[in-house]
Design goal:
This protein has 460 residues and is α/β, with parallel strands linked by helices. Helices cover 39% and strands 13% of the residues. The longest helix is centred in the C-terminal third of the chain and has 20 residues.
Length: 460
């Protein structure tokens, strides 16, 4: 299969040097980090694919906006500029800035959830699940069965399983379902998109049962690109038109703006038209994030976010952005390296369960592959599998994830085709010795979000 690279729709005006450690140095660095890639120093990583969150390169217009930041504590010009930009895209009446996506979750989840409540989602990501549990509720995933077959093609593997959703509402009782969360794109399922038809049906079910719909909007623009290219009737719609329709089916959205708004820090909460709900959002924001017109951000951050929201829906940018993923996935397919197919919007999710079938889930095959990729070429990735999923909050037993993914999350506007080729060559080398790889055990872990700080050791 011939794989074409879609060239960058921008010029490079500044470069940042990166260094390459020797293999022996990398082995020592990951040992010192207790085999946790989050504990590595960034300068010791040649290609950093740990996350696409806040790691993108800002544009000339964003940097220019930073110089215009109004640092007034209350009612700054930059706040009003951000509100205008966000309302233009999402069409929501109320917009609240916060410092990042997990802050948005921290503000919103206690309003809707509590002891005895459940949150149902097409899949909760790690911080979302954590904030559901911190609020005293339980998270239930409800993704379509097609997502579980990583080798087959389905255009919208991120969809909610709406038939099962109805059964779950009946099982738990609609009065106990505090929220239905639609994550676009569906990160934990492999960055997979959600169709508008599916979102519409999920919203209809929620409204029939009086349940609030939250849209996790971290990568909404990438999701819009997939809808435009895969869903019948949307090929002639603009990204903005598609976004407006998506958000029309929600009641509230939370957003880590560090993804599709291409900023280094920032987040949003949007409330469609419920003034009473927004008052509760503001009441939580002030003690947790700061006054409502800055929400934990400097004025310069508000300016960069206002610009980045508009740049994130540019169709040339999105074609290049998704094109990078398609190029990388195509090269991996040629090499016979398994991944969640079709490729998602922000990352390639390697199927460690298939590549390393001899490592059981409780010895964390996706983490083992991430560690080996760092040792091989200084490439930092991360586990999206049983290691990240953690333990059952009630029994303390290790949970088994539906997926054992090693995520290669590519920062926006940062790496070139040559960097992607290095990744492919490294994985080819690992594949040659895959049967020799061993699993890992945890020697220390915190109770919540353990994958950020846990300590591990190799199983000999």
């Amino acid at each position: 299969m011939s794989v074409k690279y879609f060239a960058e729709p921008f010029k490079i005006k500044m470069v940042e040097p990166i260094k390459i450690l020797t293999r022996e140095e990398r082995i020592e660095k990951i040992r010192e980090a207790n085999y946790n890639v989050f504990s590595l120093a960034a300068e010791d990583c040649y290609i950093d694919l740990l996350t696409d969150s806040g790691t993108g390169a800002m544009s000339a217009d964003q940097w220019a906006g930073i110089m215009l930041g109004d640092e007034s504590y209350s009612g700054s010009k930059s706040f009003y500029k951000l509100q205008k930009s966000a309302k233009d895209i999402f069409g929501y009446e109320f917009i609240q800035p916060v410092h990042q996506g997990r802050a948005a979750e921290k503000v919103v989840m206690p309003i809707l959830l509590g002891e005895g409540k459940v949150s149902i989602s097409n899949m909760h990501f790690d911080t979302t699940r954590a904030h559901v549990e911190i609020a005293g509720a339980r998270a239930v995933d409800c993704v379509v069965p097609e997502a579980l077959d990583t080798e087959s093609y389905a255009p919208f593997k991120g969809n909610m399983d709406n038939e099962r959703l109805v059964k779950l509402i009946d099982e738990y009782g609609k009065e106990n379902v505090g929220a239905i969360i639609i994550t676009v794109t569906n990160n934990s399922a492999g960055g997979q998109p959600v169709s508008i038809a599916n979102i519409r049906e999920t919203s209809r079910i929620a409204k029939e049962n009086g349940i609030t719909v939250i849209i996790d909007a971290a990568r909404y623009a990438e999701n819009c690109h997939f809808i435009k290219n895969r869903e019948e009737g949307y090929e002639k719609k603009s990204i903005r038109e598609i976004a407006r329709e998506i958000f029309s089916y929600g009641d509230i959205f939370t957003m880590s703006s560090k993804k599709d708004a291409i900023v280094n820090i920032g987040g949003l909460v949007g409330v469609k038209n419920d003034a009473e709900l927004f008052e509760k959002v503001k009441a939580n924001t002030i003690p947790m994030e700061g006054f409502i017109s800055y929400g934990g951000l400097a004025g310069r951050d508000l300016e960069a976010l206002a610009v980045g929201l508009q740049e994130g829906v540019d169709e040339d940018f999105l074609r290049y952005r998704i094109g990078q993923m398609e190029y990388l996935a195509g090269k991996l397919e040629e090499a016979g390296i398994p991944y969640q197919s079709p490729v998602g919007g922000h990352a390639v999710f390697l199927d460690a369960k298939k590549l390393l079938p001899h490592i059981p889930y409780n010895e964390f095959p996706a983490q083992a592959l991430a560690i080996e990729l760092y040792i091989e070429a200084g490439i930092r990735s991360c586990d999206i599998g049983s290691y990240m999923l953690g333990n059952d909050p009630d029994t303390g037993e290790q949970l088994q994830s539906e997926f054992e993914f090693t995520r290669l999350a590519v920062p926006r506007r940062v790496y070139t085709q040559s960097h992607l080729d290095v990744i492919v060559e490294a994985l080819k080398e690992i594949k040659k010795r895959k049967d020799t790889l061993k699993g890992y055990r945890i020697t220390w872990e915190p109770k919540i979000l353990r994958h950020f700080t846990a300590k591990l050791e190799p199983i000999r």
